[in-house]
Amino acid sequence: MAMQPSLQQGNPNHAEQPADVRVSVGSTPSQSGGAPEISEEAVDGHYYRPLLQAAFKGDWESAKRFFEQDSASKTAKITSRSETALHIAALSAHDQFVEDLVELLSPYPEVLEMVDCDGCTALHIAVLCGRIRMVKALVRSNPKLTQLADNEGRFPLGISALEASMHKEIAWFLAKSTTNDAPSHPFRSPSAKDTIIHLTFNGHHDITLYLVGRYPHLITVKGRVHGGHYSILDALASVESRFLSGTRLSVLEALIYKCVPGDLNTKPTDKNSDPALQCLTRSLWNAAKIVVPMIKRVHEVKLQHVAAVQLAKQVCIAISHWKSTEITDFLLEGNLLGQATVKGISEIVKLCVQFFPELIRIKVRGERLPTQAVRYRQERTLRLFLEVSSANELSLVPGPTEAESQSMMSAVVEYVATEYCPNFNAVINVAGAAFQMQRELQWYKAVESWTIPVLKIFYADGKTYWNRFVDKHKDLLESGEKWVKDTANSCMLVSTLIATVLFAAAFTMPGGNNGNTGVPLLLGQDSFLVFAISDALGLLSSVTSILLFLAILTSRYEAQDFLESLPKKIILGLSLLFLSLAFMLVAFAATLRTVLDKRLEWVLIPITLLASLPVALFVVLQLPLLYQMVKSTYGPSIFRPESIWE
Question: In terms of pTM, does the model score above 0.85?
């Protein structure tokens, strides 16, 4: 055991000194040459307090003077938790201090393996704090640090996967730096299972793919997360945003998504293509990601989706060699297919059925997968079980039995999706409660057409399925009615104001009228003609929209009205309101052009730009709402067949 520095040497009043990091320490003569002495026990805290404060503050100069006067202090345990100056500096996130100290200790890399009372090296702490500079400096000085576990059996990579999930760069570096060498064998240890599952839960699918490629035995392991045991497929099925089917993209984002490359490899995909052209293409994409942050964000999302699909495929390939009963147990133990179905992750359901076709008839908690998809309104997974029948109508494959038909009808009349998913409105991507009710009616009509006809008149508890549907959706009907009335009232007020203005403008001609004949003085000018036409069209549009909103307010608000009648009136009313606003501004610009004529031509450009601003603002704020309404009412049906084998 190394000798402890004596407080009796040097300045006898050292313990009396204030705890300043720059205090001169004259306790032990400098020990030059040879490895620094490793102290196993912490000495009196007063002696090491200046060094402790210097490490906390990142004051390298004061710490360096301390090290020069006492070489053993470089590795001394200076806290009651057996932490060294390196531990403290890592905990305080002083990158430069750690790098300087590691360089100072570089001739003796084994001293970097010292642990605190929890068995943590400085690398464990650097990973926990998310400091990539520290991690790289420590590992490059002593690669064995990645193989050391703390008292809980956690390796640095495991800590990164669990507690530093936001620092993907650290996880990647450690995944490439950690080997399965003896004696610790990190990827054969019990913690390796948890590491793989945590990486998958945190969305680091490319890292997981890299590790299971190097260590194939990890592909089917089940790790412990929050008290449960999860496989890689379970982890993938728990978060729908890891796949395209569970990600909501705007129109622009969807366009970028289709254009950006999605291969995870840096190698050329086409060996016959020109390498120079491929290099130029990669350079252009890299430049575009720097200039347009949205491209970079969408590209990262696409890479994550591609990696997730590849990872799920690797799992299916690995378990395809098992016995049928083992495969079924593996997939159903954690309700994997049920989770993927109710969350709309069609990629996992499709892969599982592709590899194991017998699963198409499997039941999850007593219900087939299509019934589960109906219960939680997941058209993406339901599409996998739809085909066009010989009568050119959609049907379920395989067709439902009478018992299954009853289960599907019972599922469609319920409204449990909001309980399962609090942000259900955002998930189904429709505009307001009225169009949510429309979507529910579309589901009911579709399921009713797939089940056996007798259920249309089948009575349960004295009520038809339609009566039960209306009862279960009573709250949604009331919310939809309130939303429609509020929207109609607000829009009718705006339409009335526009109609009033345009009606008054029709009798207040720009330039005035002839006092004898009453004919407008500027009748022959083109700008006057534009004004007259725009004013008339705007007035007719606003008046028509008023009548439509009035018809909406006087509607019965029956459940059936929300399927087509009310949505069509709202869409037409909003469209005419938008047109009337545009015509009013065109009339204003034409009038201004007529009045100013050639006297202030330079004013026309800024006035025109300012006049177009309200139209642009209306388009930005209201067009997405109108687009959702039109898509929900007139767009392609949400029930479209999707082949499992494509």
Answer: no
